[in-house]
Amino acid sequence: MTFSALRSLQLSRRSLFLNCSRSHSTNTFPLTVRSLLDNNVEAGSDVTVKGWVRSVRKQKQISFANINDGTSVRGLQAILSSEQAERLSTGSCVELQGTLVKSPGKEQGKELQVSSMDILGECDSTFPMQKKRHTFEYLRTINHLRARGNAGSASLRVRHAARQGLQDYFAKHEFTQVDTPILTSHDCEGGGEVFKVTPGSAASGNAEFFNKPAFLTVSGQLHAEMFASALSRVYTFGPVFRAEESLTSRHLAEFWMLEAEVAFIDLEQLLDITEGSIKHATRHVLDTCPEEMEFFDKWVAKKDVKGKPALLKRLRNSLDKPFARIDYKEAVQLLQGANKKFEFPTTWGSSLQSEHERYLASEECKDRPVFVKNYPSDQKPFYMLENDGKQKNNTYVDEHGSTVACFDLLLPGIGELVGGSMREDREDVLESKMKAAGMDTEEYGWYLELRKYGSAPHGGYGIGFERFMLWLTGFENVREVVPVPRWVGHCKY
Ligand code: 4AD
Predict the structure, then answer these.
(1) Number of separate domains in the chain
(2) 287 with 352, same domain?
(3) Among the four residues 167, 230, 334, 415, which has the most C-beta atoms within 10 Å?
(4) What is the pLDDT of residue 165?
(5) Nearest ligand 1 atom to alpha carbon 261
């Protein structure tokens, strides 16, 4: 064998497969479209590509097909003979072999000169994902195919990166990830918006499976507190369920929540951690998903008043400055003094509606995320720390009534992204708050015992992960950014 033949064999061997050399495994994976485009493989190499046909452009002599395997927004342009193209249709699954060549077009650096083609899966002519743009509402009705388009697949990749970014933040700050249960006998938020769980079969007759009512969790917080009182810094990330009959663009019946719980901190430090984790994950997404973020900026997010893309600018701006921090009392004053007519007027004690939340972040804080702190006690759940001077640095008693050491983080255009608080760590105060809320203190005996045996000052928060995804992508409805959405009346798939 000549040297050049040997060299080309080596090259094509190298380019055919990604070796899992790190794990010294003998397994190999086919190269993805993204790695082919991102310079991992030199032009001139022989490669095999597998993916789905996004579009076919048939011409007399040669034809073009865009092949996408869901790893990149771009797709690989394949150059085919007219006979090959004749057998192809949008949506079919193919394996192409050929040579990677430099592309004369500006759109992409490389394209594939196809030598042979296998159709792995034909696509029926009724395939609904055609090349034209579809509305997000329509795509939702074909959720099983939604990720075959760029909006669906880029959203899943960004979701993956956002989760990684959050986890990376917590790993860097010595948190332990704990898994909290999905089945529970508690209603953490006390709102009564729980789904009750009963066995589907008649196995247990009419009796309760667990000998008492059980629900799908609305929040992992109480269980996270169990572990924060032993490991100091924990977080849990999982699905939570709320039987809210809400049809808004911000509510799902099943959504994902990242919940952190930290001992030995005060409210301001809790805000620092919240801000730090959101910023870290946002930065991680911007760094690791540049092409997806450009796609959202250009095609999905609202433009600014001048019609220019605004998503990336807004995200970068939010990283540069500290988030605003105001008290609930101040928020009410700002709303009362606003030069704007709200549907719901505000006085001290009234809960902030989404029109108020959006106004505070978008207009009052000039498109900057804002923490609103220290809400009236009777608006918030039983577990929040009463602001009565126990904490040295966070004494805050309002002349209007009692408040709790809590916060909501409000985002421009979205509203509430995070809810969090310091937790009531005094056994007697907690017990009387539970009784006032009509709770069964025996059922929650273990939660009270955490205060009896070495109670630690602690606090935590929950990030609604789909709302975080709205922030990152510019989509306007949480149904677009959760892989398989569930909302009242909708449980398809
Ligand atoms: O404010 P929430 O109810 O807080 C808790 O559940 C606390 N136990 C969290 C904690 O302190 N560990 O919910 C937290 C966040 C909200 O700010 C919102 O972003 C999101 O969860 N959220 C929803 N997201 C989608 N659909 C719904 N129905 C949601 N309800 C709340």
Answers:
(1) 2
(2) yes
(3) 415
(4) 98
(5) 12
